[in-house]
Amino acid sequence: MSATRRQMLARTGALGAGIAFTGALSELFAGTAAAQPLGHTGYGPLIPDPDGLLDLPEGFRYRVLSREGDQLRSGEGRVPSHHDGMSAFRGRGGRTHLVRNHENRVTAEIPVPTVAGLTYDPAGKGGCTALTVDARLDVLSERVAIAGTAVNCAGGPTPWGTWLTCEETEDRAGTNGYTKDHGFIFEVDPVDPHRTGAVPLTAMGRFQHEAIAVDPHRGIVYETEDAFLKPFGLFYRFLPEKPLGGTGSLRAGGRLQAMRVPGVPDLSTIQETGASFDGIEWVDVPDPLAAQTPTRLQDYGPKGITHAQKLEGCYWGGSCVYFVSSFARSADGSAADHYGQIWRYDPRRRRLTLVVVFGPDTDVQLPGESPDNICLAPSGGLMVCEDGNGAQHVFGVTRTGEVYAMARGRQNIGTPEEPEWGEFAGVTFSPDGRTMFVNCYTPGTTFAVTGPWRG
């Protein structure tokens, strides 16, 4: 932890894409299946895709599993737009089940179709769809998994094999035509969505949810709040009444708490990797339903609470939870600027540590934010979805700290004179580690990438 270093991705030919970071990456993979060093700096330069969809290194190939506007194989309507967070679950006979978020607002052109028993609020246009693919990546089914929700951004898998989808909004009933309050987490069964239905997990809080991670040993659920305008979001934990109780157990309720780092009101002020804080405190959220006041603005006593701008990705690794702050901008009211942080919280030691700080994006067009969705790769590294301006990439990071471009989006949603590319989201791997699934947000596209994954 005392060693810090700065490394930058070597230029990938004419694409000239890269990110920079400071920190010791190896600890991000401690205690996981991806515990072996790779000893390489990626898979080589990205090869331009003649079909103009996805550039990959030589030897890799992709298959488009689903695109917005196509017909759902269930016949329930069209594939919704705005593909976002996603996770893969093991099925029988080599099958993989995918649950995919649709971050649809009221202006979405292609909403998630409403289905009886799976619709929370008929006015909500967001939700999830579920796909099942076989070992050859042929799509066997594609159907609505939950509908009538709003702005389903990220979420996370549970140890018992379900998906928690998160609404990134705080709109109340009567706003934007909604008939019910929004800002909740919902549980989705990837195989039988009717088993979980469309029930908000109200005890887990009503706020601008982003992602979750479940402690597989204690059942505690950690939650990030993506509030990019001041007052910024909080990092939460939910203490369930029935920890690790399986599907539906979170409906039994529990306590929602917010993290307080003594003496640190804004995490953006911490810039040095390896900086650690002991004695982390957890304070009960006075009103998790935010009936009158948003949870991040409620009264947490004279010591206040710790805020951070743009809290996004969250995952469990080894014995710790990791969470991402995509960026911080003093122009928005943040106490300091950065292009991305990854934090580690160790619940046994009650210790918070800044493990990675991303530098400015070195894309040749416009500087932008670096990390958004992240996941551990079976080949021994980390995959990071870029979320910024200019070209959009999935970056790989090895345990030894090398950063390389794994994929580049080629779908231009702008104009030839002012090109713009849809961001990546929902990167995840099949249970056997042979396939990387990833979404393009706009136009909504789900890719399956195969090739010579090392390790």
Automatic annotation (TrEMBL):
Biased composition (Basic and acidic residues): 71-85
Coiled coil: none
InterPro entries: PhoX, TAT_signal
Chain residue ranges for the region called Disordered: 71-92
Protein's UniProt name: PhoX family protein
Organism expressing this protein natively: Streptomyces griseosporeus
